[in-house]
Structures are given as structure tokens and as C-alpha cells.
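Illustration 12: Glyoxalase/bleomycin resistance protein/dioxygenase superfamily protein.
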Amino acid sequence: MHFEAEDEDELRKVGMSKERRVDPQVQVGFLVDPTGFPLEVHLFEGNKAETTMPVPVLEMF
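Figure caption equivalent — predicted structure in C-alpha cell form:
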């Protein structure tokens, strides 16, 4: 999922982008069951590393 924003705030932040984008972004994390059915959806700050996301999501679930 992609959208653009011009200004940073508490959620939209400049961070690492695989597409090398330099605009503020957010990250969306989905927790799905083995068939791909979504169980939870989480929104993360754009400057958060993907590697730090799974543990908090699993703990909340």
C-alpha cells in the first residue's frame, strides 16, 4: 500500500524505503492465518524497522 504525504507528524515519518522514496511514510502490518485471512492490522511509524514489528504484534494478539 502506498500513499504520499508532504509533512511529517507523529505517525508519518521519513524512513527506510525499499522503493527509495524520500517522503514521509507509514507502515502497515498484517497478521494473517495460514490461509491468508487477516486476523489483525497494525499501523506503525514510517521510521520503524520492519524487524521490530512482529514481536509487539504477536504480543498484542
